[in-house]
Amino acid sequence: MKTMLTTVQAFIADEGGVTAIEYGLIAALVGVAMAGAAKLLGDEIKTTFNNVVTSLKSALAP
Question: What transmembrane ranges does the database entry give (predicted)?
């Protein structure tokens, strides 16, 4: 019975899983923030990439 009590106490004291969950939540929050920023800046990013493609095409044209 003592080993069972010791095992339960060790399980309760273990915080490794909690840390992993916290890191997972932080990663999810960063992902949501990046998606929100991309949505807000979507048209500007699209315009910038189109300008780069146009510049490269004109620079590589024979």
Answer: 20-41
Q: Quick check: helix, strand or coil at residue 62?
A: coil
Alpha-carbon gap, residue 11 to 4, rounded angstroms: 11
Residue 12, token pair as written in the block: 């309760």
Note the residue count of the chain. 62
| The pTM of the whole model exceeds 0.70 | no
Question: What's the one-letter identity of residue 16?
Answer: G
Q: Rounded to an integer, what distance in angstroms lies between the CA atom of residue 53 and that of residue 47?
A: 10
* Rounded Cα distance, 7 and 1, in Å: 10
Q: In whole numbers, what is the pLDDT of the chain averaged over residues?
A: 86
pLDDT number for residue 1: 63
* Helix/strand number for the chain, H first, E second: 3, 0
